[in-house]
Design a protein that fits this description.
single chain, mainly alpha, 2 domains
């Protein structure tokens, strides 16, 4: 029976991932995320239900629209796969519980924000600001409100400080307010002091992948690289690898809550 639930969790998560793709595409355009039904962004042909099966349709269509033959971006099935895997992971770890619903919601918010920031280089406040309050309410229910509040304030405050100081030093915007709200949301969910680890992971992955991106695409170092996806990696990484992080710091004589 557990296998059945795991399969269901994956399929349900992949279906949610398909809807996240719709939000990522339409939200920055100010379009409704409910209507019309899914369509090819190139030829505008409505996608029939048989061609809208998460992951499987992409494989059967060989990554191309059946109407115009235009290539379908790999990020569509990738997001469906990632979301499905995360649903399975949180189900196996927390079963059906408050933590399960909170963390899959948090993960979905991070996926939406990352997708939009990567494509449009904006972070939608309509996702991150309510996410701050959702994280605080979740931690309040767990009895961890104070660490969550400190995490949100520290995370948002740190990025705000970088934004202000960096702007004065470089005479241009180095961080947007969207990054501030996003980090505050992550801080609300992971709490203090794990928000420090989340920001460190974000900076580390951002530096490594940023260098790889610049070298592989031969772009200028001045080319803007969205930081939202890396913040999301840091926030999600802290939750997924929580036990490993706790044990690592315990080896160093630092005991995190």
């Amino acid at each position: 029976m557990n296998i059945i639930f795991v399969v269901f969790a994956f399929l349900f998560g992949a279906a949610i991932g398909s809807f996240l793709n719709v939000i990522i595409y339409r939200l920055p355009l100010g379009a409704s995320i409910v209507a019309p039904r899914s369509f090819c962004p190139h030829c505008k042909k409505p996608i029939p239900a048989k061609e809208n099966i998460p992951i499987l349709s992409y494989i059967l269509l060989k990554g191309r629209c059946s109407g115009c033959g235009t290539s379908i971006s790999i990020h569509y099935p990738a997001i469906e796969l990632i979301t499905g895997v995360l649903f399975v992971y949180f189900y196996l770890r927390y079963n059906i519980s408050l933590e399960f619903f909170a963390y899959v919601t948090f993960s979905c918010a991070l996926i939406i924000i990352s997708g939009i920031d990567f494509s449009f280089q904006i972070i939608p406040d309509v996702i991150s600001i309510p996410g701050i309050f959702a994280g605080l309410v979740f931690q309040l229910a767990k009895g961890n409100f104070l660490p969550a509040l400190v995490g949100a304030i520290f995370g948002g405050g740190l990025i705000l400080l970088i934004r202000v100081v960096g702007g004065k030093v470089y005479k241009k915007e180095v961080m947007g307010m969207g990054d501030v709200y996003l980090t505050a949301m992550i801080g609300a969910f992971v709490g203090w002091p794990l928000i420090i680890v989340a920001v460190f992971l974000a900076a580390l992955t951002g530096s490594i992948l940023g260098i790889i991106f610049i070298v592989s695409t031969r772009q200028s170092r001045e080319s803007p690289i969205p930081f939202g996806p890396f913040l999301s990696i840091g926030g999600l990484g802290v939750i997924v690898f929580y036990s490993i992080i706790i044990k690592f710091f315990a080896m160093l004589g630092v005991y995190l809550r």
